[in-house]
Design a protein that fits this description.
Blueprint: H1 2-10, H2 15-21, H3 24-34, E1 39-43, E2 46-49, H4 56-67, H5 72-99, H6 101-112, H7 126-142, H8 145-156, H9 163-179, H10 186-194, H11 197-210, H12 216-223, E3 227-228, H13 232-244, H14 249-269, H15 274-289, E4 290-291, H16 297-300, H17 309-321, H18 323-347
Antiparallel strand pairs: 1-2, 3-4
Helix pairs in contact: 1-18, 2-5, 3-4, 4-5, 5-6, 5-7, 6-17, 7-8, 7-9, 8-9, 8-10, 8-11, 9-10, 9-15, 14-15, 17-18
Amino acid sequence: MAVLALAAWAGGRHPLTLLGRSWDAAWYLGIAAHGYGRTLYFGPGIVHSDLAFFPLYPALIRTLTAVTPLSGAGAGLLVSWTAAAVAACGIYAVGARLHGRAVGTALVLLWGLLPHSVVLSMAYTEPVLTAFAAWSLYAVLAGNWLWAGTLAALAGLSRPNGFAVAAAVLLAAAAEIRRSRGRVTHRLWTGAALAPLGWSAYVLWVGLRTGDALGGYFGVQRLWGSRFDFGRGSLAFVRTLLLRGDRFVFPMALVIVAAAVVLFALLALDRAPLPLLAHTAVLLLIALGGSGFFESKPRFLLPAFPLLLPLARALVRTARARPWHATVVVTALAGLSFGYGTYLVVYAQTPL
């Protein structure tokens, strides 16, 4: 944030305005202030409705502005920063439970130094989703199914890809039922039933509001240019990018998405627990299979923190054997994160 602030001030702009009111943040602030109902028309087949944005984050902003003197942007940043801290604690808890405290710490460090981690400091929903996802996955690993299902339901109210958390809980519950041959407690059944409720409730509400109960929400997304087409749109965009070239943001997004695929393969080879694999696989599937907003795909993958587990373990091993090498790696990642994050927010004219 210090690097971003210096760059913003040098360009005559205010850093908190950039963090609190850029791109999708303006939509969330509008929903928080006035409720749903805003629609922008850009031409035939291009209609942007605020119904595409899930309700939990604007509801939290509205609550804070009602009980504190904060503005909408200030409340949005407070929610995001608090959620990022809670997410960091949850990520640490997952890493420490699986591989020890050192790996938990390294996992948080790598997550905070991702090229798009600047989004975690903005009035966006990724920190909120990651917080619920991390603690829901930790609850599954600990066998606390009620908490897992409740947090998954809240994750489903945060973002469209929040369904990945519910999918992880449901698959883990199914595996436990199979392992125990059906002899499980009512807490598991209740947690599994709760997990998809948040996401399903909002999708159904939008469907009823638009007159198409099951397809209304997906119709709204299609008008934004977002649809799940099994990757055809993404492949066409990559082909255009490789043949013609484009702004720096798009090649960088391509590299990050490709790295995510490799990291998922490493995670699977590492035999990570099923809930982590399921959560990450669904997020990756949505990012790869969805068309539209290719430049935003790295942001969509921020909640997929289990992808970094193999790297965190490798970093810990390197730090113990060759501390100087680990220091150089972390310093390089920090330079990339600070520089690219500042570029995205202050200079790039590309939606995040």
